[in-house]
Amino acid sequence: MSVSLTSSASSTSPSVPRVSICLPTCNRPELLVACIDSCLAQSYGNLEIVIGDDSKDARTQQLMATRYANEPRIRYTRNQPSLGQARNVASLFERACGDKILLIHDDDLLTADGVEKLVSLWARHPQLEVAFADQYEADHSGAVDFDASARLNTAFRRTKDAEGLQALPGRTGLIQMFPNNGWMANADLVKRVGYKDQYGMCCDFVFGTELCLAAREVFYLHDYVSVYRKTATSISHSTRGTTVAATVSAYAFVKALKLPPQLEPSRKLALRRLAPIVVSVHAKNRQAVLGSKIALTHLFAYNYGFSMRLYYHLLMLSRAAVSPVSEPA
């Protein structure tokens, strides 16, 4: 079953905020078309689409020249040489001219009224700095799985009872409630926080956490504004299960964060999700000592021993100890 992603653009007024949709892309022109078209079909008219192309070949550049040459809302740049995931996004933020910034990746989509739903929140909450909402889950073609969509948002604590201004804005990023794209924020805040490249595959989680920590007000809207397409070509998919996986970097980032006392419970909640995954990664990579240290330091993540997951991971670690690889000091 599919969700309509098209709508005629509304007329604009100089008084309404200008939205910069930032769209990084890399070697996926076949997916990019649907993403761009979903941006062009927005019911909200005062927007620009800023595209940064990190592709190794010219297919995307040729696509843009033939399909979108006469579209004034698009500002396309091919990065030569390629910038990499984080620096590509950072360059888009720098180039954005709008009052608000919205990020969408090339394998995802916006619903026809997604921008309008998000930007309208500022009329109700003038001090608002960051807003986000629910994501549909869809297959490669964009066909939405509604049951999977509900499970996806529930897993990340995006539920009706959580809707509204967040009492602790920083908590939103820490507990991974904040999505990696489809969000909207004041451009000045986005540019001040920046998108850093030293965190590898978890740069989106780091950015979302730092953005929410820096924001005065964050609003969660319990409504769908974007579509997450499950594809086999995602960057995180290629590193999953390795020591450079996003979860490993995210764990190290959360552990090192300096937080006010009121956010320490949020850190613990984040580590409850992250630590067992990191233990599993180290076990699979035969880093038994490192994995054991993390497991025993975070027994709360295993319900203090009342979880079969702990004993399964300890078994994995004991097997890893038989044929270990060299571990960091």
Can you offer a commentary on this structure?
The protein has 329 residues and is an alpha/beta fold. It folds into two domains: 19-238, Spore Coat Polysaccharide Biosynthesis Protein SpsA, Chain A (Alpha-Beta Complex), CATH 3.90.550.10; 263-322, no CATH class. Helix content is 42%, strand content 16%. It contains 14 helices and nine strands. It has helices at residues 29-40, 59-67, 85-95, 114-119, 121-124, 146-155, 169-174, 187-193, 203-214, 235-239, 246-256, 264-284, 288-297, 308-322; strands at 19-25, 47-53, 74-78, 100-103, 109-110, 130-138, 164-165, 184-186, 218-229. Strands 1, 2, 3, 4, 5, 6, 7, 8 and 9 form a nine-stranded mixed beta sheet that branches. Strand 1, helix 1 (29-40) and strand 2 (47-53) form a beta-alpha-beta unit. Helix 12 runs antiparallel to helix 13, helix 12 crosses helix 14 and helix 13 (288-297) packs antiparallel against helix 14. The longest helix is centred in the C-terminal third of the chain and has 21 residues, at 264-284. The protein is globular and about 60 Å long.
